[in-house]
Amino acid sequence: MITIQEYVNRMFKNIPENEQTIGIRQEIIENLQEKVMDLMESGKEEEDAINKAIVDFGDFDEIISELSVDTSPVTLKDDKKTVEYNYRKTTNAFLFSLCGSAIIIALAVFINMYYSPGTIWFVYPMFAIIWWPLAMFFRWLNRRNRR
């Protein structure tokens, strides 16, 4: 299972080490090793099981964002491609949240007007839904200012 350890260590290469990151790294390695063992017990060869476990695990961006590590413009000033990619990624996330919120609010308005036109209740969930694009907007502003 050295392949899994090397893979996880490569993914955590740019993340500063502290108790939290070491614990999460170890937990990921253990989970991936358990997944490989389960796949091998179900009849897969070791190499196939390792590859499938890594593919099923997904992307490390979510874990990095949960660790509150910002690897974009501040730590990677000299790598303009990475800075631009992170900025575009944040812009896309903001646009996605804006469109998603609009669709959800439109659905709530439709349900409200169709089932209970005398009572306007869609405003209450609308306030909760607005926080999603608002949070993404401030994240986008933060990344834009660091550019």
Structure explained in plain terms:
By secondary structure, the chain is mainly α. The protein has two domains: 2-66, no CATH class; 80-146. It has helices at residues 2-11, 19-41, 46-57, 61-66, 80-115, 123-146. The longest helix has 36 residues, at 80-115. The chain is extended, with a radius of gyration of 21 Å.
Core attributes:
extended; 147 residues; mainly alpha; 2 domains
**Oligomerization state of this entry?**
single chain
Q: Structural class, please? A: mainly alpha
What radius of gyration results from the CA coordinates?
A: 21 Å
What percent of residues adopt helix (DSSP H or I)?
over 70%
Biggest sheet: strands, sense, closure? none
Give a count of the beta strands, DSSP E runs of length 2 or more.
0
| H/E topology pattern | HHHHHH
Give the count of structural domains: 2
- Relative strand content: under 5%
**What is the tally of helical segments?**
6
Distance between the termini: 40 Å
